[in-house]
Design goal:
The structure is a homodimer of 400-residue chains.
Chain A (H helix, E strand, L loop, with lengths): L27 E5 L5 E2 L5 E2 L2 E8 L9 E5 L25 E2 L4 E2 L4 E5 L14 E2 L4 E2 L9 H15 L4 E7 L1 H12 L4 E7 L7 H16 L16 H15 L2 H7 L19 H16 L2 H13 L10 H4 L6 E7 L7 H13 L3 E7 L13 H23 L1
Parallel strand pairs in A: 5-8, 5-11, 6-7, 11-12, 12-13, 13-14
Antiparallel strand pairs in A: 1-4, 2-3, 4-8, 9-10
Helix pairs in contact in A: 1-2, 3-4, 3-7, 4-6
GO molecular function (chains A, B): homoserine O-acetyltransferase activity
Pfam family, one (chains A, B): Abhydrolase_1
Catalytic activity (chains A, B): L-homoserine + acetyl-CoA = O-acetyl-L-homoserine + CoA
């Protein structure tokens, strides 16, 4: 395939509306919803809108080798590219590349920033054409279904009818499940990792704490902070700190930090960061603020809270996958208490009830929810094995 | 014993320095550290200072029947009395009373507000005699050891040499362990519940999030908010919301709220409280602010973070209890992930290594850490049984 349908790959200039460094976005962009706007689950419409994405590898002549990588809450489309703000390698650089788990010598890998995001895809920090000012809270509330619809339009734009595979962890896994449920005919294989078919009460609660932290910051200004040339940095940092604890496990925190003191011999008897774990958390909060938009955080957490494949299927999760031909590999991690194995097992049970082709692996690790982003050899070999065998089956099907 | 050493029981007038309704404190007060100030672990001194406390039942002629009830982070001395601000019954009203687990027909029960608290005992919201203004961050950082020293002075003041029993959950349990370690000769029996001999990295992390939420609120004003006639309400509410999630279990949240919507038939597609769990959390945050001081929250969480009976005993927890004659009953709850059974078991192992008299019970419940405050019949019968048998032994010892 020629990629002539795509715009050039401009390293776009910092966006003055962003008020800070988070605006520096590079990569490919597609303008979608031009002929007809996207109808959202809320009933609102959105369009035209931009989707920012990256690709790795080459689409084969049969357009059969596309892999969609779906990112998590605070992720972005720089899955295997240097992040334009932080300068860090892609968040799945270990998995995506020549000869790697998602082998770019074999697959055409697409990763797009989700709808409502802040790294190039249209979201609350972008200009509202109706007012000429940043959307802020005038941006419509979006769902995982809306994110997946936007990804579907991106595939149309790229001329890709069927995905060989959709893969992602956490909220990325929710998108994979949504793909499998809403567009099974476009999906040969699916790898939902460390995820859930609906967000739990505890996870909604943690998200609500983060949102309240942001909205409590006077610099949030009812969501219109960009208009005011400011940003709710302190509130967003607190939201990130609270969330970050949930991404780790207690044993990992103990192993990494324990009660070790930060740059001192004895307790300081003050409210400075006495302990290394405090210093680490503060750093997590302050560095996150440099790369993420607070309103995007509100919208994306809301989309996760709203995700419920039971409710969407009249209370029956197997119905979500009725008659599916997609091959599934569900992965969970033993120390993940945010999306514990029990939640992933519910997906497996529903797939079994729907007579789907599914394998399930629980990886033994102390790294918590974040394990899907880390160097976990057993995780990598599990996904690699599944992708290889699914690819063999896919080639057989294409040839037949 | 006559209680003539105590001041009258004045329903004290609201304290103008408090800036809001949290100042209404009733109950008994003792002025301590008058002859010599209290030397704190930080090296600072404090005195004279006030300890607010409540008592239930009557001290026997041998002064042998005193039970010290130690409260948790956001608790107070109204263990079995109506709270003067909220009008709610005491937090351990189910346990303390005539014929109850801690039988006031038999025992003289004392519960005092901890040092650094905000319900009558001297803390950061009180006037600093050196400046004539509220302490704020000029209040010295205190430790669990300092809290226990203040309680020891209160016992001296009440003419009580030996406690029959010290009992408490969470931070209350830390005080019980500190009593057992620092003053074993004054303690016949000890019931540490849902606690730890040192605060874990994860728990320090959660506390740090709460502190950052408070300090991020511009109304905190570097801790001098009372001077400014304001309070960091939003920050304190966020801190409480984050903490509150850790007091519950995922199954309990699921059972209580699941994904049920709040006063609506369908999703609102907004950032209002769509889900009952959101509404519940917001209520927890806003009601807490009415009864608690933000700086006290900073100081008391810090005291918990600093608690480490290993470190205090050269890295050996058994040393903390060497040669102890105190009888222990350690209690944990299966679904408590804040102070999990594993942490309580470490206390039991150390007591075993110190050849102490110890029984250990893990209570099966889905109520999480908060189970020690709730109606848990097995928990109540466990404590009741231990207290009865320890009391029989105590009476034998007194007669001998």
């Amino acid at each position: 395939m020629t990629m002539s349908a795509e715009p050039e790959n401009p390293a776009s200039a910092p966006d003055p509306e962003a008020g800070a460094s988070i605006a520096a976005t590079a990569g490919k962009r597609a303008l979608l919803g031009v002929d007809a706007p996207l109808r959202l689950d809320s009933g609102a419409t959105l369009g035209p809108f931009t989707v920012a994405y990256e690709t790795y590898g080459t689409l084969d002549s049969l357009k059969s080798n596309a892999v969609l990588v779906c990112h998590a809450l605070t992720g972005d489309h720089y899955a295997a590219s240097t992040h334009p703000v932080t300068g860090k390698p892609g968040w799945w650089g270990d998995l995506i590349g020549p000869g790697k788990v998602i082998d770019t010598d074999r697959f055409f890998v697409i990763c797009s920033n989700v709808l409502g995001g802040c790294m190039g895809t249209t979201g609350p920090r972008d200009l509202n054409p109706a007012t000429g000012r940043p959307y802020g809270l005038d941006f419509p509330v979006i769902t995982i279904g809306d994110m997946v619809r936007a990804q579907g339009l991106l595939l149309d734009y790229l001329g890709i009818e069927t995905l060989f595979c959709a893969i992602g962890g956490s909220m990325g896994g929710m998108q994979v499940l949504q793909w499998a449920s809403a567009c099974p005919e476009r999906l040969f294989a699916a790898v939902p990792i460390a995820t859930a078919a609906r967000h739990s009460a505890q996870n909604i609660a943690f998200h609500e704490v983060g949102r309240q932290a942001i909205m409590a910051d006077p610099e949030w200004r009812g969501g219109a902070y960009l208009d005011a040339g400011t940003r709710p940095r302190a509130g967003l940092a607190v939201a990130r700190m609270a969330a970050h604890i949930t991404y780790l496990s207690e044993p990992a925190l103990h192993r990494k930090f324990g009660r070790r003191l930060q740059s001192r011999e004895r307790l300081g008897f003050s409210f400075d960061a006495d302990f290394q774990v405090e210093s680490y958390l503060r750093h997590q909060g302050s560095s996150f603020v440099e790369r993420f938009d607070a309103n995007s955080y509100l919208y994306i957490t809301r989309a996760m809270d709203y995700f419920d494949l039971w409710e969407a299927n009249g209370g029956s999760l197997p119905k979500a996958f009725e008659g599916t031909k997609t091959r599934f590999c569900v992965v969970s991690f033993t120390s993940d208490w945010l999306f514990p194995t029990a939640e992933n097992r519910k997906i497996v049970h529903a797939l079994n009830a729907a007579a789907a082709n599914v394998s399930f692996v629980e990886i033994e690790t102390d790294k918590g929810h974040d394990a899907f982003l880390l160097d976990e050899p057993e995780f990598h070999s599990t996904v690699s094995g599944f992708i290889s065998s699914a690819w063999a089956a896919r080639q057989k099907a294409v040839r037949a």
